[in-house]
């Protein structure tokens, strides 16, 4: 069993690309469709803390009730924002990946390469054709990196 977990939305192209990159490394991650099975508020708080980013960095605005809920207002505490995210899981930005190497919001999708303990097993291109990994399993120059 893999030690990698992806908080995944199958309707999201970035999330699908990240899942495919994980699988291209030979791992079969635990896939949590967080829209159907949102994390608890405590678990979400743990994930946010593990990313080293604040709660607001993991809130998705586009295609969500962000504006109608007035979440841009600074009056909301982190705990309140987390509660909104659990109540409306579409507010959780994706994909979040948990691995032995850390926790990261993988936008753009190639950021997941920094979390994978195993090398890529072959070439990989995103759904729309951008090459990320070459035939030798190496990151293509210009593909995003944490470094």
Structure description:
By secondary structure, the protein is an alpha+beta fold. The chain has one domain (5-121): Glutaredoxin. It contains 4 helices and 6 strands; from the N terminus they run E-H-E-H-H-H-E-E-E-E. A 4-stranded mixed beta sheet has the order 2-1-3-4. The protein starts with a strand and ends in a 14-residue tail after the last strand.
Record keyword descriptors for this entry:
Glutaredoxin, 4 helices, single chain, 14% strand, four-stranded mixed beta sheet, elongated, two-stranded antiparallel sheet, 147 residues, alpha+beta, 6 strands
Topology summary:
Elements: E1 5-8, H1 13-24, E2 30-33, H2 41-51, H3 66-69, H4 78-87, E3 96-99, E4 102-105, E5 124-125, E6 131-133
What name goes with the CATH superfamily?
Answer: Glutaredoxin
The major β-sheet equals: 4 strands, mixed
In total, the number of domains comes to 1
Sheet with the most strands: spatial strand order: 2-1-3-4
Chain oligomer state: single chain
How are helices and strands ordered from N to C? EHEHHHEEEE
CATH hierarchy class name: Alpha Beta
Structural class based on helices, strands and sheet pairing: alpha+beta
Output the radius of gyration.
Answer: 16 Å
Kindly, what is the distance between the CA atoms of the first and last residues, rounded to a whole number of angstroms? 29 Å
* CATH overall fold name: Glutaredoxin
Beta content: 5-15%
The tally of beta strands, per DSSP, is: 6
Architecture per CATH nomenclature, i.e. the level-2 architecture: 3-Layer(aba) Sandwich
The DSSP helix count reads: 4
Overall pLDDT score:
94
């Amino acid at each position: 069993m893999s030690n990698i977990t992806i908080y995944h939305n199958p309707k999201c192209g970035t999330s699908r690309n990240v899942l495919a990159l994980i699988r291209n490394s030979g791992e079969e991650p635990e896939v949590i469709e967080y829209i159907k099975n949102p994390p608890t508020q405590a678990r979400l708080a743990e994930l946010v803390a593990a990313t080293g980013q604040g709660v607001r960095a993991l809130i998705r605005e586009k295609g969500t009730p962000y504006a109608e809920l007035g979440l841009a207002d600074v009056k909301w505490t982190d705990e309140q924002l987390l509660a909104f995210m659990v109540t409306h899981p579409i507010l959780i930005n994706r994909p979040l990946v948990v691995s032995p190497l850390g926790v990261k919001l993988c936008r753009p999708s190639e950021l997941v390469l920094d979390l994978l303990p195993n090398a890529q097993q072959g070439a990989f291109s995103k759904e729309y054709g951008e090459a990320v990994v070459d035939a030798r399993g190496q990151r293509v120059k210009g593909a995003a990196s944490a470094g």
